[in-house]
Amino acid sequence: MKGRITALAAVLALALALVAAPARAADKPAVTLSASQAGTGGSITVTGSGWRPETLLMILICGRSVPSRGVIGGTNSCANADGRAVTTDAHGAFRRKLPVSEPPVPCPCVVHVATVTGAKADADAIFQVAGHAVEPLPAESAAGRLSVLTDTRLDGAGGLLTWFGAPPSRTLVFTVGNVGSSPVEDPVFRVGTAHGVFAPQWDEQQWHGTIAPGRKAQIKLPVELSAGAHGDYTVSLEYGGKVLAEQPWGVGRPWGVTVFWILVCLVVPAAVFRLGMAVVDRVRPLGPAGRAVRRRSLRLPELALRIPRPGASSSSSAPPMTSTLPWFTPDTDPGTAVNGRLSAPQENGPTTPTEGNT
């Protein structure tokens, strides 16, 4: 009884494996072409299956490439200007017409399909551009070869200076394994940064260390953009003339620079306006109110000089001060002398002797 149960379990496991094998094969991205050869100016239909649903793909014709070795030289070996983008359907399939154009490097050529966003996936189909030059591929070294074993990532974050336009910087982290027969010492990688559809700008960086055959190592390489850079960038990793990985990088806009210029546009005009108003206030002619203020400021010293100082003689040469009010005429002003007197004569008071009295 126990032997029958074991045999039944083995049969079920084998059946499940046979059913799952086609499913796994179907999940692998695949590309087929309507024609294996065409000339410049024509077009072919590219059909794909096994891709992730609702995924954006890029279709390119690339030279110096074979499916077994991939695209040697990366997208620099492809006709990027005539590429086409397509989005897979809910089942991970697509169908797209692609114009035929010559790549910038000789054939052998392939139609290269790769994901634009999300997890990296690609597939190649052999294609011959009629009339285009064909040259043998560069020899592949069997000594020490590196292969990327894990997905790449960018570590780090922007700071306050980046918010004000400082160069954004990250650290590209990935793990490589030596699949060759000899150790690799101090490998030199090329790190490229591309903005949008432009070609990447490459920078050679050397990693110090030795990777023995069959061993792996984690590599960390610095990546830096120019000051004020923002938008969608792609970081590419190349070794031995072959692009090993590509990593998207979304760089935020340096809003601090925008805020600074807004403040400058507000503060500078306000300062210029205040300076101009001060100059106008100094040079403009005075109105009636201003002239009255100026006259009063000039008269105050004159009034101060007319006030008699203590101890001064009454026989001063200064003219007597008289008050002239608007409701009195100069003849009837109480402050003026009448017949040489300042007041009326008293009726019952003593009289002064006259010249006639002796």
TrEMBL record:
<feature type="transmembrane region" description="Helical">
    <location>
        <begin position="255"/>
        <end position="276"/>
    </location>
</feature>
<keyword id="KW-1133">Transmembrane helix</keyword>
<protein>
    <recommendedName>
        <fullName>Neocarzinostatin family protein</fullName>
    </recommendedName>
</protein>
<keyword id="KW-0812">Transmembrane</keyword>
<dbReference type="InterPro" id="IPR027273">
    <property type="entry name" value="Neocarzinostatin-like"/>
</dbReference>
<keyword id="KW-0472">Membrane</keyword>
<feature type="compositionally biased region" description="Low complexity">
    <location>
        <begin position="312"/>
        <end position="324"/>
    </location>
</feature>
<feature type="compositionally biased region" description="Polar residues">
    <location>
        <begin position="345"/>
        <end position="358"/>
    </location>
</feature>
<feature type="signal peptide">
    <location>
        <begin position="1"/>
        <end position="25"/>
    </location>
</feature>
<keyword id="KW-0732">Signal</keyword>
<feature type="region of interest" description="Disordered">
    <location>
        <begin position="309"/>
        <end position="358"/>
    </location>
</feature>
